[in-house]
Amino acid sequence: MKNFLKKIRISTVITVLILFSGTIYPSALASRKLYFPLSDKPEVSLSSAFYQDAGLVFTPQFLFPFTSSLTLDFSCDVIHSFKAENTVLGDAELQLNMLLPGRNRFFLSSLAFSALLPNGPDSSLNTDFRFLSYGKDMLSASLLTLSSFHKFRIYTELKYSFISSQDPLYQGLYINPVKMKTYETLFGFNFQNKDAFFYKDKLKDDFLVFNAAFDYAVMDSFFAGVVFSSILCWHDETCENTGFEKTNFSSGIELIYSKSGSNGLKFKYMENYWFNADSPERCFFLSFFTEI
Less packed terminus of the chain by CB within 10 Å, N or C? Predict the structure, then answer.
């Protein structure tokens, strides 16, 4: 499977950057640009990741705002595999972000829907790019929350990803109103129909991911935080093909510098626990972001 855990880490690299405009203790609403890719202006960010035993990943990301509560962002990886000794284009991703109503100074939430565009090598066939690329279609839906308490902010993300280990992912979606199959499958939402997108046995291929971040304002323009990530795979065959165990866990620390609120720099160190390895895989991230 695409380095799904990597995607979550890269997403965290981009979104867990603190942007302040004014006070050192911003509210949840004022800090939303840090955690949620929401902005009134177009933004660009560039992230790089070093995986000790796998390779390098460079990810430019572009954010296009429709409103301050609705944005679209696009990213594409450039990956280098240590095993293959080769640099290629990786997968791309398109994501729609929506800030939910009911937000206030201390709490806000957001929904995100993303589609992976499989431009990179299929890591289930080419293990040299495992954890760096996925190479197959993937659809994801995320619920993100942000709470603010004085110097502290707590961010959480619950993400469910639809994948397919055999049939094409979109094969179970039907929208043609003149075909009986559309109504038999309830447009793909019938859990009992084997041809539907949401057929119960197909869901066994899917992944559930939980991310959490805790940050603390050390001083003006400088912040420190910890990040946790866990991915759950409940299908033995899928786990074997993708290189993940049924449960994978990552933890790390991050240092963020952001002076003006429109640009910043971040360094992060992560340790990833998988494969029942004697020691965790170590990863380093460096990210830069700025408004256009």
Answer: C
